[in-house]
Amino acid sequence: MSHILIVEDESVIRAALRRLLERHGFQVSEAQSAESARELLGKETVDLIIADLRLP
Questions:
Q1: What is the rounded distance in angstroms from the CA atom of residue 32 to the CA atom of residue 50?
Q2: What ranges do the domains of the chain cover?
Q3: How far apart are CA 26 and CA 45, in angstroms?
């Protein structure tokens, strides 16, 4: 199963993407900032990152 990391500061968008991806069988992790994404990547391996290009 592929592991996807969603990096998005808007919780509504993050939750919608998570639901969609999980329905299609993906393992999903999420981060609300680039900093928290870096921390998570130090602990987990992901296959794909979906990131907001305009993070604060």
A1: 12
A2: 3-51
A3: 14
Q: For 3-51, give the CATH class.
A: alpha beta
φ, ψ (nearest 5 deg) of residue 41? -65, -20
- For the chain, give the secondary structure using H, E and C: CCEEEEECCCHHHHHHHHHHHHHCCCEEEEECCHHHHHHHHCCCCCCEEEECCCCC
Report how far residue 47's alpha carbon sits from residue 13's, in angstroms, rounded to the nearest whole number: 20
Chain segment 18-47, per-residue pLDDT in tens:
999 999 999 999 999 999 999 999 999 999
